[in-house]
Design a protein that fits this description.
This protein is mainly α. 75% of the residues lie in helices and 0% in strands. It contains 9 helices and no strands. Helix 2 packs across helix 3. The chain is globular, with a radius of gyration of 20 Å. This is Sigma-70 family RNA polymerase sigma factor. Keywords: DNA-binding, Sigma factor, Transcription, Transcription regulation. It comes from Pontibacter populi. InterPro entries: RNA_pol_sigma-70-like, RNA_pol_sigma-70_dom, RNA_pol_sigma_r2, WH-like_DNA-bd_sf.
Length: 190
């Protein structure tokens, strides 16, 4: 695949519309981590995340192919909203969710999710920029701890700190720098 072939939402939609399997493959890889994170943090397993994401992509694909897709947000937001609803429905079926799905449907319309998801996307973008400005070793240290869920002992060994207290202190300093970068950039956007 050419570099940059499917960098925009429009390019992905057109690729799917014209039957380019590479567009669909790119879409599968692009937003799965976000859906997986959501499902794993809400009583789900990796296999359940894969199933829900595939169902969400199928909904998206079928809407494109039937020419009934009216996208008023980014693909990422759309897929998140669809997958979120699918997951809540599965949780209700399994009894892991206290509310009846009929009651929840009144509150979980796709259109209601869009503004919140767009705000979340904006924050994630600002956070990504702040992480990139943070530099090393802070960026990797925070990713290891918060994203890869490594323990402090592993981080101590990886970065060559003398003990876990030193690693914790460094993590704290890095987190403070990240917060400052994030809030400065976030306030500048508002």
């Amino acid at each position: 695949m050419k570099k940059g072939l499917y960098e925009t939402d429009e390019a992905i939609i057109e690729g799917i519309r014209f039957g380019d399997d590479r567009a669909l493959a790119h879409l599968y890889k692009l937003h799965f981590p976000m859906i997986s994170h959501f499902i794993l943090n809400n009583s789900g397993t990796d296999d359940e995340a894969k199933d829900v994401y595939q169902e969400g992509v199928i909904v998206f694909y079928e809407k494109i192919k039937s020419d009934s897709l009216e996208l008023t947000c980014q693909i990422k937001t759309y897929l998140y909203s669809v997958c979120r609803r699918l997951w809540l429905k599965k949780l209700a079926e399994k009894g892991r969710f206290a509310t009846k799905m009929d009651d929840a449907e009144n509150y979980l319309t796709l259109e209601d999710d869009v503004p919140q998801q767009e705000e979340n996307e904006r924050r994630f973008g600002v956070m990504e920029d702040a992480m990139n400005q943070l530099g090393e070793p802070c960026k990797t240290l925070l990713e290891d701890y918060y994203i890869r869920m490594q323990n402090m002992q592993d981080i101590t060994e990886r970065f060559g700190y003398t003990n876990t207290d030193t690693a914790k202190n460094q993590k704290y300093k890095c987190l403070q720098r990240l917060k400052k970068l994030f809030f400065t950039a976030y306030q500048a956007e508002v």
